[in-house]
Write a sequence for this structure.
């Protein structure tokens, strides 16, 4: 009863300390995970494999392997997929040898096996590891079917590693096959693989291979005692290095079982106790538990009941600690996985936000470039149009000024002609009637166009009508009148409208409407440039003021005569 109470108290204290350490480690996980996540998958796996040598770094090792494994995608390059297989094998090692969570270990191996089969990778390590889980479950339950399944996986792993030139995995698979044969007594699988195993070269550095050959010969030796001695001799030659320290425990355990079969209980007790201490020194909790239970059974067979009970209590304590550690680690793992999931979701959201920001920036940049290009084209064309309009405007203004000077000059000449005519009339009145006069109209009549050859319009009358017409077009109230027509103008010029049309056609080379419209457009342009009261007028009002009833007709004719629209001309004038 006293031992039971002490055992419970010790268990409670142990669980409390482990819980405190677990919660303390969990508080630092967020920042640690963020730093690990920045590493590449290869860097994570290499760090995890290096930390496997430290028994106190289970949490960090699991973090490295879990992050790398979670990155797996069927679309990633083959080299990265192989890295994910290494990560899953690392997870298996942690779950199997440290946390004793066989379902999680098996899940990691299944994932690795799927990747290998999908890509044609060497799956010997994965098959050998699956065999290890089945063998451990068979040893704890005594289920022969599990031994058979483990043997099949080991045999397949051996063949694949042998064919792919992976001797280390072949050594491990063959040793495990021999261990199962030691439990079950069935050496048929080992014997079938032995010819291939013998073909593998063996040097002084190949400790597993030399031990496996000794192991095989020990199982087939005439007596169990002789086989045990062979195993012990081979075990003593194994160095206690990290990569093969479990091999030495297998040697002690195998020798002890052979001694039990031989009936040498005292020697079996010594070797089993040696194996237990060795497992404890190297932190092999599952091996320590196995050897402690085996030692309790040997002590019981020797009749040392009290020592057997104490040893069995020690076995229960180790088992309870493993169970408690496993449960706490499982809780911590769930928190760890939750942190990973939250961090990955945050990373995904950040990536999505960055993607959206990049798209927005891209579209804004594209729109800016398009707008810039359009503005450049617009201003470029606008500059060209501006120069063109300025040139047309200056030319038109020059034409207006020249026309204005010609009009003034024409008035002066007309006045001089009237004065000269009066003087000639006075001279003729004083001359003889018989004085011959030269008619100036004879030569001009000969130049009359063929169209008007039948016309009775004389040259003197033509000059009179032309002079009258030129006087009339200088009067805006006449030209810009809404009822201005060829008949109205002919009436004002005192001639027939046919003669007026003839004169316009011969002198100006156009019909009467074009002749009048040109003067109206010129008058409209003068009014737009005049300012004053005309500045308040709209384009339509100015068009009406110069005799146009249609805005469309006015704009079309204005552009025809000036090369600009009325709006553009008005802007240039302003």
């Amino acid at each position: 009863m006293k031992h039971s109470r002490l055992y419970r108290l010790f268990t409670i204290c142990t669980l409390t300390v482990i819980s405190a350490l677990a919660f303390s480690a969990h508080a630092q996980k967020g920042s640690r995970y963020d730093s690990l996540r920045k590493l590449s998958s290869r860097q994570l796996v290499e760090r995890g494999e290096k930390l496997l040598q430290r028994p106190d770094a289970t949490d960090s090792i699991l973090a490295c392997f879990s992050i790398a494994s979670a990155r797996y995608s069927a679309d990633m390059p083959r080299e990265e997929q192989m890295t994910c297989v290494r990560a899953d094998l690392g997870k298996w090692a942690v779950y199997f040898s440290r946390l004793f969570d066989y379902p999680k270990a098996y899940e990691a191996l299944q994932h690795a096996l799927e990747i290998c089969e999908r890509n044609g990778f060497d799956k010997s390590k994965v098959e050998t590891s699956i065999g290890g889980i089945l063998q451990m479950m068979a040893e704890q339950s005594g289920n022969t079917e599990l031994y058979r399944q483990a043997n099949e996986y080991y045999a397949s792993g051996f063949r694949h590693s042998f064919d792919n030139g992976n001797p280390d995995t072949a050594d491990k698979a063959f040793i495990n096959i021999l261990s199962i044969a030691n439990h079950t007594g069935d050496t048929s699988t080992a014997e079938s693989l032995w010819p291939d195993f013998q073909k593998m070269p063996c040097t002084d550095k190949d400790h597993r291979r030399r031990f496996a050959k000794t192991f095989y010969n020990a199982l087939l030796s005439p007596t169990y005692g002789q086989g045990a001695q062979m195993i012990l001799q081979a075990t003593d030659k194994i160095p206690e290095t990290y990569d093969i320290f479990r091999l030495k425990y297998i040697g002690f355990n195998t020798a002890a079982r052979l001694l039990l079969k031989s009936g040498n209980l005292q020697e079996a007790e010594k070797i089993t106790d040696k194996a237990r201490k060795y497992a404890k020194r190297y932190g092999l909790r599952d091996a320590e538990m196995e050897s402690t239970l085996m030692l309790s059974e040997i002590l019981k067979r020797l009749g040392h009941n009290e020592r057997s009970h104490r040893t069995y209590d020690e076995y229960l304590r180790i088992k309870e600690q493993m169970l408690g550690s496993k449960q706490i680690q499982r809780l911590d793992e769930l928190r760890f996985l939750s942190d990973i999931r939250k961090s990955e979701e945050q990373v995904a959201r950040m990536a999505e936000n960055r993607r959206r920001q990049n798209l927005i920036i891209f579209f804004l940049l594209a729109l800016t470039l398009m707008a810039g290009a359009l503005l450049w084209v617009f201003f470029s064309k606008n500059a060209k149009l501006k120069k063109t309009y300025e040139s047309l405007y200056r030319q038109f203004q020059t034409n207006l000024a020249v026309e204005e000077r010609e009009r003034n000059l024409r008035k002066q000449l007309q006045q001089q002609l009237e004065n000269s005519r009066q003087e000639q009339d006075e001279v003729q009145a004083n001359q003889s009637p018989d004085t011959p006069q030269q008619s100036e109209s004879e030569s001009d009549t000969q130049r009359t166009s063929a169209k008007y050859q039948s016309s009775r319009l004389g040259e003197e009358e033509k000059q009179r009508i032309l002079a009258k017409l030129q006087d009339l077009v200088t009067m805006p109230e006449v030209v810009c009148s809404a009822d201005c027509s060829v008949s109205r103008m002919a009436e004002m010029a005192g001639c027939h409208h046919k003669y007026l049309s003839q004169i316009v056609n011969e002198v100006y080379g156009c019909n009467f409407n074009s002749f009048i419209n040109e003067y109206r457009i010129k008058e409209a342009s003068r009014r737009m440039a005049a300012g004053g009261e005309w500045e308040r007028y709209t384009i339509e009002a100015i068009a009406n003021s110069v005799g146009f009833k249609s805005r469309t007709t006015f704009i079309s004719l204005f552009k025809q005569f000036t090369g600009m629209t009325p709006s553009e001309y008005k802007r240039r004038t302003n």
